[in-house]
Amino acid sequence: MRVDLFDFDLPAERIALRPARPRDAARLLVVDEGGMADHVVAELPAMLRPGDMLVFNDTRVIPAQLEGLRGEARIGATLHKRTGLRTWQAFLRNARRVRVGETIDFGHGVSATALDKAADGSVLLAFDGDEPVELLLERAGRMPLPPYIAQKRATDAADAEDYQTMFADAPGAVAAPTAALHFTPQLLAALDAAGIAHATLTLHVGAGTFLPVKAEDTDDHRMHAEWGRIDAATADRLNAVRSGGGRLIAVGTTSLRLLESAAGEDGIIRPFEGDTSIFITPGYRFRAIDGLMTNFHLPRSTLFMLVSALMGRERMQAAYAHAIESGYRFYSYGDSSLLMP
């Protein structure tokens, strides 16, 4: 399909630079067969049915943004995907000033050597020394805010908490699974009381999620790979919900992509561990999920293509037009939608 079919105009003032407080005070646009309705996230228990299950991503964002020097050249690095105990693919700012074999000094006793340059423009970095890389990043790194926020303001102390979900447990993401940022312990307790269960899986979100689609046709876009895991016990719980007549609602496109990667043609979700580069566009037949809670996405992005595949492109264009007209806040720190096909 033509990528320009997924374009829309978004006024800059609709991009949220801070989250709603409290988190579950964010607005929630419900889109289903009945049309569109405006709510707030705290009302979610009334939007679902007893026996339904919400599926969250428990990945934890690491301080994956680094600033350093190669000689006198300033180099910025955003870690993208872990490839080994001490190696990460990274997108570099000023990458032309770094050749294979050269070392970048990130300060605080942290340095890394460029091992290779990939076709997508990323660089394979090997962190020097024998300290765990996690400790090195805690010393030298900072929270990797999305580019559309980082271009407008600096990262600060509040982001260390704001850009982490209440489910964050497994370190490894370089971007938050932002749909879950709206949840609070109080909201989770209300969902439990309403008979709505929840489960977690792990997908380490990579910086590739922010890469623009440069191709003119979706068939020519190469999707980034991300590592995920669903264990056997979780797969059994998920399958039991659907076999019992409940619905699986993915909280975030990351949860959805992993669930769909783990499901067979029969709709059964199987244990999964490894990379997925699933690219969902209109025409895709969903196998694992019955609904999606997700924030509002960038024009021409793979994620707007995904929600268009779930709900229909024209319906999502109409929903986004309504959201823009009604003052919804967009992107990572913005408001949310509940999409029930």
From TrEMBL:
<keyword id="KW-0808">Transferase</keyword>
<comment type="similarity">
    <text>Belongs to the QueA family.</text>
</comment>
<protein>
    <recommendedName>
        <fullName>S-adenosylmethionine:tRNA ribosyltransferase-isomerase</fullName>
        <ecNumber>2.4.99.17</ecNumber>
    </recommendedName>
</protein>
<keyword id="KW-0328">Glycosyltransferase</keyword>
<dbReference type="Pfam" id="PF02547">
    <property type="entry name" value="Queuosine_synth"/>
</dbReference>
<dbReference type="GO" id="GO:0051075">
    <property type="term" value="F:S-adenosylmethionine:tRNA ribosyltransferase-isomerase activity"/>
</dbReference>
<dbReference type="InterPro" id="IPR003699">
    <property type="entry name" value="QueA"/>
</dbReference>
<keyword id="KW-0671">Queuosine biosynthesis</keyword>
<comment type="pathway">
    <text>tRNA modification; tRNA-queuosine biosynthesis.</text>
</comment>
<keyword id="KW-0949">S-adenosyl-L-methionine</keyword>
<keyword id="KW-0963">Cytoplasm</keyword>
<comment type="subunit">
    <text>Monomer.</text>
</comment>
<comment type="function">
    <text>Transfers and isomerizes the ribose moiety from AdoMet to the 7-aminomethyl group of 7-deazaguanine (preQ1-tRNA) to give epoxyqueuosine (oQ-tRNA).</text>
</comment>
